[in-house]
């Protein structure tokens, strides 16, 4: 399994590298052991974190309350938990974990 995502039941844990002040919001794809995400917000007073979580909510088709920043509140490298994502964007290269057939 790639290093930038991990499934724990219905929860998806993502390792992200954020590029603030980008031209547009986008997931650029895997980059080393992380998923690179560009966002337009500046890294000031928590604006980038709030913007990132709203963007991920739209992108993964969940309510904002279903996303939690686990670590990295003050840096560019972050860990984010998404509960029951409604969709998986192609650019993220994430596969659903196979269900046990026991």
Automatic annotation (TrEMBL):
SUPFAM superfamilies: YggU-like (SSF69786)
Listed InterPro entries: DUF167, YggU-like_sf
Coiled-coil segments on the chain, per record: none
Pfam families listed in its UniProt record: DUF167
A GO CC term assigned to this protein in UniProt: cytoplasm
Residue span of region Disordered: 71-102
NCBIfam families: DUF167 family protein (TIGR00251)
Family statement drawn from the similarity comment of this UniProt entry: Belongs to the UPF0235 family.
Database matches in PANTHER family: UPF0235 PROTEIN C15ORF40
Name under which the protein is recorded: UPF0235 protein SAMN03097708_02229
Organism: Thiohalomonas denitrificans
Lineage: Bacteria, Pseudomonadati, Pseudomonadota, Gammaproteobacteria, Thiohalomonadales
């Amino acid at each position: 399994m790639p290093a930038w995502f991990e499934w724990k039941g219905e929860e998806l844990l993502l390792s992200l590298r954020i590029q603030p002040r980008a031209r547009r919001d986008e997931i650029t794809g895997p980059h080393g052991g992380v998923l690179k995400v560009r966002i337009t917000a500046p890294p000031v007073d928590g604006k980038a974190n709030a913007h990132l979580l709203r963007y991920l909510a739209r992108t993964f088709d969940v309510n904002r309350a279903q996303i939690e920043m686990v670590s990295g509140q003050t840096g560019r490298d972050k860990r984010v938990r998404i509960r029951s994502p409604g969709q998986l964007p192609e650019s993220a290269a994430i596969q659903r974990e196979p269900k046990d057939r026991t």
